[in-house]
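User: Fold this; tokens only.

Assistant: Input:
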Amino acid sequence: MYSTGKLVGGKGFVTNAKGGTSYHNRGLAIDVFDIKDGKIVEPLFNGEVMKTIVKIAKSDGFS
């Protein structure tokens, strides 16, 4: 995300967080994408996939 200059395809800002203030900088947040053939798949995930992602994240200490 940093390398995109906080812009995605010219569609607007990904975040309004100032540098160093994001939960990502403290290891308290993650981004998860479904990628197929090198491109992000949208919609990102169905409900069952998201439940699995949450289960894994919680087992790694996220809440």
